[in-house]
Design goal:
This protein is mainly beta. The chain contains 1 helix and 11 strands; from the N terminus they run βββββββββαββ. A hairpin with a 5-residue loop joins strand 5 and strand 6. The radius of gyration is 14 Å and the shape is globular. The termini are far apart.
């Protein structure tokens, strides 16, 4: 019964920055991953970034590399998404996700164990990000 609570969304001008946070509770294992996805009308849900709790391995979508940074505070079960140099196409609803099925995670993404596919077990409520002048 994982619970994910997101915060930090809002309105920002192009070139600006936002920082999203996701606090999780209810993990039953010592290894899990947390990720960020975004949903834009007319497009499929896109995996943005992923981080593992134990090793800090990360994985990013090509569209955000160099601009977004995912990090985590393992002791607090909290993940952050620092978004810099935001563009209008970054607009959407951002969802925090978590999964602790280790074998499945590494089968989906054997290099990092941190997939960007949307079949995660638990999801936050979503945080709306609007990038507009």
């Amino acid at each position: 019964q994982l619970q994910l609570v997101e915060s930090g969304g809002g309105l920002v001008q192009p070139g600006g920055s936002l920082r999203l946070s996701c606090a999780a509770s209810g993990f039953t294992r010592n290894y899990y991953v947390m990720a960020w996805f975004r949903q834009t009308p007319g497009k499929a849900r896109e995996g943005v970034a992923c981080v593992t709790s134990r090793d800090g391995n990360t994985n990013y979508a090509d569209s955000v590399k160099g601009r977004f940074t995912i990090s985590r505070d393992a002791a607090k079960n909290t993940v952050f998404l620092q978004m810099d140099n935001l563009k209008p196409e970054d607009t959407g609803v951002y969802y925090c996700a978590a999964d602790e099925n280790v074998l499945a995670l590494f089968r989906r993404e054997p290099i990092t164990g941190c997939p960007l596919t949307p079949d995660f077990d638990s999801w936050g409520q979503g945080a709306r990000v609007t990038v507009s002048s």
